[in-house]
Amino acid sequence: MDIREIAEDFARLCAEGRVQEAVRTYWSPDIATFEPVPGEWAETRGIEQAMAKMTWWRENHEIHEIDVEGPWVNGNQFTLYWEIEMTPKDGETEDLEEIVLYTVEDGKIVEERYFY
Amino acid sequence: MDIREIAEDFARLCAEGRVQEAVRTYWSPDIATFEPVPGEWAETRGIEQAMAKMTWWRENHEIHEIDVEGPWVNGNQFTLYWEIEMTPKDGETEDLEEIVLYTVEDGKIVEERYFY
Q: What is the strand order of the sheet B43-45 is part of?
């Protein structure tokens, strides 16, 4: 699969609500993730830590609706637009809008960089 | 100005149709640009070449409407969503959708990476 096929399949799975399947299929064991804000999950290294971040996020936010747009591709990177209507534990319902930049090596996502 | 202020001001100028002013204000003399497709303008190095690409683009496309969304920020980078309704010379009117990833150093944009 070339980068555009990987990006489109990953985007399709996420848009269908199959995020767990998407990341099990496409995350590299070495995936690193980078959030723009400080804190425990600002940077993760390796698939176990990335999975732990995802689990933490799901346990602390109730998701009402997810919209995924894209992909847009350049070289070995692609971007998706995410809009997530969710309620944080003990918080107010809000719309989270973000762009995620994915870097692909050998058919797997090795980096996710979050922009918001 | 921090990265978010630069990103917001740049996005505002572009959204108001003041792209020339935005790039004169924020492009570094060393700006590099990277398109995802091969050809004469696939990569440019330095502000003269970036300006030449912009001039070529404007001379070869009639722009009807521009929508700019964002910015979304991470570290020293930000992203914008561009939707441009335009007609290429000798072509059909189309909607161009792209994400642009901007890298900022010392208050100036040193890299633009186009995703589509």
A: B43-45, B27-34, B108-115, B94-105, B77-88, B61-74
